[in-house]
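Lab manual, section 2.4: Encoding a predicted structure.

Procedure: take the sequence of the chain (148 residues), apply the prediction step described in section 2.3, and record the output as structure tokens. A sample record is shown.
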Amino acid sequence: MNIKNILLTIFTLFTIVSCYSQPSKIVTDIEGDNIKGVVFNKDYKFSINVKNEYFTPTIKQILHAESLLKESLKNEPNSTKTLKAFKKSKRQYVGYIENDNHYIQISLLNISLSNQFGAFKDWENEIIYGSGEFYEKNFRFYTIEISN
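Recorded output:
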């Protein structure tokens, strides 16, 4: 293993944020798209707290963010491939406030492929982040502003 691979492995291990909390609720079948996700409440204990203030997104806010996400993905390069690849992905929702604007971070996790590697096993309890080839193929996150 060369030094580049070793450093990448170490970096990946340190960038995976493993936090534990009880999610506020499980969301299923949003708008008939068979979306399943976890909404993390505002009291979730982040190991790296980068935002000043968090909030627990409501179902209405999540539906709004999902519709905005779907529209923004249509304008992304390779949008058809992205939409297809992540249509059945599991979601994680985190709400935060920055400069009086409300945002929802939506993480898309390709659980089916990752299960064979044991990745994302605690996706319902931990915020998932990571880097490297595996995460490039099986993980996306988008920040959606919902306060217009």
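Check your result against the sample. The radius of gyration is 16 Å.
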